[in-house]
Design a protein that fits this description.
This protein has helices at 19-31, 43-57, 62-73, 85-93, 96-105, and strands at 2-6, 12-16. With 107 residues, it is mainly α. It has one domain. It is globular.
């Protein structure tokens, strides 16, 4: 699975969902105990619920999130904490392919 995203400079990029990326996402979802209460809601409703849950539980998967951010953004793990969280979530959840993947993964 391949997702088109933008980096912090607004330049389009591609995130290929590799086995490694999938495992990172799985670990994050598991550690944060992410579940969407209304998976049949609109994309906006599911996205808003997802953002609230991610922000409120990010501390549970800090290392995994830094690793994923570094991979997606092409930065070091040491620079990952400096990436704007809301912008990063928006880039991922704003993409219909990523949103559909996350929606199915957190049911």
């Amino acid at each position: 699975m391949i997702f088109n995203i933008k980096n912090e400079n607004g330049v389009g990029g591609i995130l290929m969902l590799t086995i490694g990326t999938g495992i990172k996402l799985s670990a994050i979802i598991d550690k944060m105990e992410l579940k969407i209460d209304n998976p049949e809601g609109t994309r906006a409703e599911v996205g808003a619920e997802f953002i609230i849950k991610v922000v409120s539980k990010a501390h549970k998967a800090e290392a995994e999130i830094y690793s994923l951010v570094a991979e997606v953004k092409g930065c070091s793990i040491q620079d990952a904490p400096k990436v704007d969280l809301m912008e990063f979530i928006g880039e991922l959840s704003g993409n219909p392919d990523v949103a559909n993947f996350l929606k199915s993964a957190v049911k």
